[in-house]
Request: fold
Amino acid sequence: MSIQAVRGTRDILPDEVPAWHRIEAAARDLFARYGYREIRTPVFEETELFARGIGAETDIVSKEMYTFADRDGGSLTLRPEATAGIVRAVIEHGLLSTDPALKVYALGPMFRRERPQKGRYRQFHQVDVEAFGLTSATVDAETIELSLAYLEACGVGERELVLNSVGDRSCRPAYVQRLREALRDEAPSMCADCRRRAETNPLRVLDCKVPEDQSTIEGLPRITDHLCAECAAHFAEVRRQLDLLGIPYRLDHRLVRGLDYYVRTTFEVTSGRLGAQSSVLGGGRYDGLVKDLGGPDAAGIGFAVGLERLALLVPAEPPRPRCDVFLMPLAAAGLDRALRLQRSLRQAGLAAMLDPEGRSFKSRMKQADKLGARFVAILGEDEMARGVWTVRDMARSAQREVPEEKVLEHLKEKANG
Ligand code: HAM
Reply:
């Protein structure tokens, strides 16, 4: 029996890769214009980093991590998200001491043992963006604007921005206490997850999707009614600036997100075209996380885009021809000249190919067609005797003879023209 890909993982096949190249190139180009530089961190870290960073009571940490014992007895985990690892690297290398307003982005695979379905995988990819050391609401608005600009740069038009504030460490504990009290009466009639979360992490109850629990949840106290004056002012300013920039959003007091590090602004962007897994990106502010993980008291804000989901939304582009020149040495003696010409064409930046199997003229022409070759250069017995190549322009169905010593220049000019 042949071996299959592990459940929840997927191959990105050659036909899909051009869309991935486009979204990766758009990230590099756009983020650089907003002052972000790329950072690359390992795909596995000490398990404790995620437990402390994301929160031991979150679904990600309690149920979804790929954790394994290292041979020396340590516990390692494949990163379920990028933020914690980036914060670790920022602290470890003291990056904030040289750049107190550090902006970095990262691209790469993440791992969560979730139930696989369309748009939800166990290995998936994120583009992740993080800004440190900046507390002003202007940064929240700019980060949100950047996330939308990125979707736009990838050709994604139809989407909805959802916004909330989850308060900070001065006002949220009192709110969570209220929630806990309200849930004391309500939880016994709710689903098993809600009953558990009512004790361990009441905010997570707001994430529940079980239909029977929805009316109860709607009746619970709302964080936005319990923000302290500073958080309320910050949130009002974020919204004012989004209005100023003409960015529409929907407020959702239940958007608490699945990671515990958030304070104040949280946001997600959803698309109706994605089905059940509708969130294409999510993020928010996480002032306090850098300090919690042993670094300076620096603010932080960022977001991550799920690239599998983004790739589903990116409009298809006509495939680019993969072959500029297809070389056809028809006699065995022509192979050496064709190999030299192929190498020169490739060095000149053109996509050149030949059929090394020396099949029939007809099957090679078919192959050239399939590759979308723009030019076919034929070297038969007759051409060899006269020191020429027959160059066929496939789009025009026209052909001409070109002397051997001019054929490289000729093809370069035609293919680049
Ligand atoms: P998150 O909401 O857990 O946030 O993930 C961000 C995005 O990653 C989601 O909106 C979704 O597109 C994608 N994603 C998550 N899980 C899966 C999965 N199993 N399969 C496919 N795609 C998935 C974070 O990860 C935060 N670190 C974002 C952040 C950065 N907050 C501040 N800075």
Notes: The chain is about 40% helix and 20% strand. Residues 81-83, 112, 114, 119-121, 124, 126, 128, 130, 258-259, 279-284, 286, 302-304, 306, 308-309 surround histidyl-adenosine monophosphate (CB under 6 Å). The radius of gyration is 28 Å. The chain has a mean pLDDT of 95.
